[in-house]
């Protein structure tokens, strides 16, 4: 009976860990990585490194790889960008959709942000009004979609809007609750 307790405990612990995003093993959409820097107006600067590390004010917040996988700052699976543009998190949590230069939040088909070819970040509110979110430098060519992904993930941390039916939590990593 004593030998059964550790096995039961291990099973319970493994049962509580979130399921990896779909296609985690093989990855999703191909991404190009490069050195890029986002100067945000109302928040800390963001750095995308060629190795996929994403830092805010010098602190690692997540890591992306060349096949669309995203890990949190503890290198645990968090999300994957699928080839069709869907961003899906652990336990099949839908995190929005990405094009090359724009993204929509969960529960909406309309873009809420865009990263323009010149690096300007533009946010769209429910009425279609635009606001500036700073400027990316180094997001040219194929790296532009990676910058859009980073922008989407960080926007998910900071926006709380009943319009989208999403509650966004900030803690360890990026979290979205419904």
Give me a quick take on this structure.
The protein has 178 residues and is of the alpha+beta class. It is built from 2 helices and 14 strands.
Reconstruct the topology from this structure:
Blueprint: H1 4-16, E1 36-39, E2 46-48, E3 53-56, E4 59-64, E5 69-72, E6 77-81, E7 86-89, E8 94-98, E9 102-104, E10 113-115, E11 120-124, E12 130-137, H2 143-158, E13 167-171, E14 173-177
Antiparallel strand pairs: 1-2, 1-12, 2-3, 3-4, 4-5, 5-6, 6-7, 7-8, 8-9, 9-10, 10-11, 11-12, 13-14
Structure description:
The chain is α+β, with helices and mostly antiparallel strands. Helix content is 16%, strand content 36%. The protein has helices at 4-16, 143-158; strands spanning 36-39, 46-48, 53-56, 59-64, 69-72, 77-81, 86-89, 94-98, 102-104, 113-115, 120-124, 130-137, 167-171, 173-177. The strands form two sheets. A twelve-stranded antiparallel barrel has the order 1-2-3-4-5-6-7-8-9-10-11-12. It is globular, with a radius of gyration of 17 Å. Mean pLDDT is 83; it is low at 1-15 and 160-178.
């Amino acid at each position: 009976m004593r030998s059964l307790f550790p096995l039961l405990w291990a099973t319970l612990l493994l049962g509580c860990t979130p399921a990896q995003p779909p296609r985690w093993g093989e990855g999703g959409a191909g991404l190009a990585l490069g050195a890029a820097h986002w100067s945000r107006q109302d928040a800390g600067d963001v750095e995308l490194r060629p190795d996929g590390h994403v830092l805010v004010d010098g602190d690692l917040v997540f890591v992306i790889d060349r096949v669309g996988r995203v890990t949190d700052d503890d290198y645990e699976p968090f999300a994957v960008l699928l080839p069709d543009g869907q961003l899906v998190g652990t336990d099949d949590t839908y995190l929005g959709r990405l094009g090359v230069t724009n993204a929509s939040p969960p529960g909406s088909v309309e873009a809420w942000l865009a990263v323009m070819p010149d690096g300007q970040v533009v946010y769209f509110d429910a009425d279609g009004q635009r606001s500036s979110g700073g400027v990316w430098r180094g997001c040219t060519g194929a790296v532009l979609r990676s910058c859009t992904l980073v922008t989407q993930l960080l926007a998910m941390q900071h926006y709380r809007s009943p319009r989208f039916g999403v509650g966004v939590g900030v803690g360890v990593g990026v979290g979205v609750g419904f």
